[in-house]
Design a protein that fits this description.
Helix content: 25-40%
Structural class: alpha+beta
Strand order of the largest sheet: 12-11-10-15-14-13
Shape: elongated
Number of helices: 22
Oligomer: single chain
Strand content: 25-35%
Length: 780
């Protein structure tokens, strides 16, 4: 008789319901004789008679198993073929009676027909005969039914599938099980149902989730040095993985970059909500306020100890903070962890973690997770706080060291585009008035950011102002400035603990000196892009300015200077390297804005460039100076060639006297100017080389210049009382506000400056320039 043949079907009262042909052959009773009788009576009769012994020469084995018919449990008696050993029986008994693994046997309708003892703990109601998704409170029963049906149809097992279920009334306990499904078949490969086993892995999964939260916080929090962004990253990392709601409040002074207070924190210290994540409607809490006393939040700031709090309707601390209590009530939260943001015994703020009805309450293990999360966040917030403090100082230093406000100049119109770097940088610009109505236009950039770059920029800017007073050419200015930068770099290197020593000093600078009399511009650059010049008709002017090495660089490479003609109304653009590829390069996408400058107002041109610059971080700081040239009117300049003999001084004095009278200079200033002219010309005749030239320039200052071909520079001498000569430059130095010597391509120019002294009558004469052209002090 084949194994697996159904012999008898017995109901739960022990009576025969079905009697198959194999049973007729085995026992000798027909179906009519057996159906409806007690199976116990039939077996007793068979044991007393010769029916079984006549048909079997050896022991026959049968298998009894439960089966469902409708909603009733029946018992099938099947031929077992080979005998089941005692060991097999013991194994099956142990699996269903003693194993902690939950076992279920499901029929081909996915109804529960047998369960292990461990399965009794999963439900408080009988489960036999029920569809397995109805027997237990699964979070997604439809999905589980689909998975089981797929295994039943395909035979492909599903192993270690995580299934979530709830247990208990009221606030249910949520458990996680690892479930596997296997198809059950008989010896004829007929599908009988499924065998499932489940293991409670709630604690394991919770532990893994806690580790995942900590890992997410360590990887995702603290990328940027900004307190607000750090707090936003924190709530995004913990919601919903760890909590349903997260609320971060930071002490207001900490956000401003000040030192965090020591514990215990005084009661009236205001805290600012810097981040919030979670779904709560109509949130009435203020952005900045002190924490009410008598609440877990204020208690945490008194001892820096995290707290696990169960939220109940009658919790006394809710009455101390009605606004927060209303928000908690609306959210449906039932569990709370309040943890401090603290570092080295100083409080930075508090973080509140909430869970509502859809999740289990926090446990003691969660308290440790919250503490670890807040410890990491506190370190990131403190780093951001210190950076913010340094950023504020660096921004202040840079802002104070730049020209405030930009000076006005009569021979150039200026406009600056400055987009400060987020960390504050070392870019600067300057427009320095030079003798002879000339203007030095300067753009510089110190690599790096923060206080170190800002301070270095201030030192170099001070140095270049000092050097500019010596009236040097741009190439000589850059060479002297490079020496100064090298000395700064050497000083930084001797301070290994000082921030500037952490990286080499790299500085670029470009200097252009514009002469409104000769309408020329002399340019030299060190490490910065080539300037751009645009003629009044909008066509670009060729500026082939060779690049010198960065300041403080190694070697003795020169800083070659180039002199170009710039007609009145030309536009000169100088900028840092951040603008090189986009604006200053001939193929730059924004270069047409410069090339079409023409006579457009410089502020409009600057705004167009600023708006067109692509967003995003750039390498270095963005700074550009725009300068539009103006010519000094010809009636403000006297140029006179002089003979090389003694007659040069009287000729120069007479010409100066006539021009000063035409300009309306008062008598005392005219007398002083004649004396200065006489001494300058006399020194040129005595020590210089022809040809000689006198030039008077009447602008903000009255400038006297005498040029000759000699290259030697004059020096002030202190003549003795009996000496007849040697007092010329001493007299000039005593009478003039400033005097100096300027090297030329051929020879030198000695100059002296004094305020323009204009009589009141001539100043008010409509035929003469108004007060705007006389920027110096009044007449003496």
């Amino acid at each position: 008789m084949p194994s697996g043949d159904v012999l008898v079907l017995i109901d739960d009262s022990g009576r025969v319901v079905e009697w198959g042909r194999p049973a007729e052959e085995l026992f000798g009773w027909s179906a009519e004789e057996a159906v409806g009788r007690s199976v116990t009576a039939l077996m007793n009769e068979a044991a007393d008679g010769e029916r079984l012994r006549e048909r079997f020469s050896e022991t026959a084995s049968v298998l009894v198993k439960p089966a469902l018919r409708g909603t009733s449990v029946m018992w099938q008696v099947l031929s077992a073929g080979d005998a089941v050993s005692g060991q097999d029986v013991a194994i099956l008994k142990a699996m269903f009676a003693r194993s902690p693994v939950v076992l279920h046997v499901l029929d081909n309708q996915l109804r529960v027909v047998r369960i292990s003892v461990a399965a009794d703990s999963l439900s408080n109601t009988p489960v036999l005969g029920k569809h397995f998704t109805e027997a237990y409170e699964l979070e997604d029963p439809a999905e589980e039914a689909t998975v089981a049906q797929r295994v039943l149809e395909s035979g492909e097992p599903v192993v270690n599938r995580l299934v979530r279920r709830t247990k208990g009334p009221g606030r249910p306990t949520r458990r996680i099980h690892s479930v596997s499904y296997f198809r059950l078949e008989d010896s004829h490969d007929r599908v009988l149902g499924l065998v499932t086993y489940a293991v409670d892995v709630t604690e394991r999964e919770n532990a893994q989730n806690r580790l995942a939260v900590l890992d997410a916080v360590r990887r995702g929090v603290g990328h940027l040095l900004n307190v607000g962004i750090v707090c936003e990253e924190l709530v995004e990392a913990v919601v919903p993985a760890f909590a349903d709601i997260a609320d971060v409040q930071v002490i207001e002074d900490v956000i401003r970059g000040n030192e965090p207070p020591a514990v215990p924190v005084r009661r009236n210290v205001p805290l600012r909500r810097t981040a919030f994540q979670g779904r709560i409607a109509d949130q009435p809490l203020e952005d900045v306020r002190p924490l009410p006393t008598g609440t877990p939040f204020s208690d945490v700031l008194s001892d820096l100890r995290p707290r696990l709090v169960s939220i109940e309707e009658d919790s006394s601390w809710l009455a101390a903070d009605p606004a927060r209590a209303e928000v908690i009530r609306r959210s449906g939260s039932h569990s709370l962890i309040v943890a401090p943001l603290a570092l080295r015994g100083h409080a930075l703020g508090v973080v509140s973690f909430y869970r509502h009805q859809q999740h289990d309450p926090f446990e003691e293990e969660d308290l440790a997770v919250a503490s670890a999360v807040c410890s990491h966040a506190a370190l990131c917030i403190d780093n951001a706080r210190q950076y913010m403090r340094e950023w504020i100082i660096a921004q202040t230093v840079q802002r104070r060291l730049l020209p405030q406000p930009p000076a006005t100049h009569t021979t150039v119109d200026l406009c600056q585009l400055h987009l400060p770097a987020p960390e504050a940088g070392g870019a600067w610009f300057d427009a320095i008035e030079l003798p002879g109505a000339r203007t030095a236009l300067i753009v510089g950039d110190v690599a790096g950011h923060g206080i170190a770059a800002a301070i270095t920029m201030g030192l170099l800017r001070t140095a270049i102002h000092t050097l500019a007073a010596l009236d040097m050419q741009p190439d000589e200015l850059l060479a002297r400035l490079s020496d100064t930068a090298a000395r700064l770099a050497a000083a930084y290197a001797r301070l290994p603990m000082d921030p500037p020593a952490s990286e080499p000093l790299t500085t670029g600078c470009a200097i252009a000196i514009y002469d409104p009399v000769e309408l020329t511009c002399t340019i030299a650059r060190a490490g910065l892009p080539e300037p751009v010049a645009v003629l009044p008709d909008g066509t670009p002017a060729g500026l082939s300015v060779p690049s010198g090495p960065p300041l403080a660089g190694t070697g003795n490479a020169p800083f070659p200077a180039t002199t170009v003609d710039l007609p009145e109304g030309s536009t000169l653009a100088m900028g840092t390297a951040a603008l090189a590829d986009e604006v200053l390069a001939p193929s730059g996408p924004l270069r047409p804005l410069l090339d079409g400058a023409g006579t457009r107002p410089l502020p409009d041109l600057r705004d167009d460039i600023a708006h067109a610059l692509p967003a995003g971080d750039r390498a270095g700081e963005t700074l550009m100076m725009l300068a539009r040239t103006k010519a000094l009117p010809k009636d403000r300049v006297l140029t006179l060639a002089l003979p090389a003999g003694a007659e040069a001084a009287p000729i120069a004095r007479a010409a100066a006297r006539r021009q000063l009278e035409a300009w309306g200079v008062d008598e005392e200033t005219a007398y002083t100017t004649e004396l200065i002219v006489s001494e300058l010309v006399g020194n040129a005749v005595r020590y210089g080389t022809p040809p000689l030239q006198l030039r008077l320039i009447f602008e903000r200052m009255l400038t006297c210049e005498v040029s000759d071909r000699a290259t030697s520079a004059p020096q002030v001498k202190h003549a003795r009382t009996i000496d007849e000569t040697g007092r010329g430059l001493f007299i000039i130095a005593s009478l003039a506000d400033q005097w100096g010597t300027r090297s030329r391509s051929q020879g030198k120019t000695v100059w002296a400056q004094q305020p323009t002294g204009v009589s009141a009558e001539r100043r008010n004469d409509a035929g003469h320039p108004d007060d705007r052209h006389f920027g110096g002090s009044g007449s003496s």
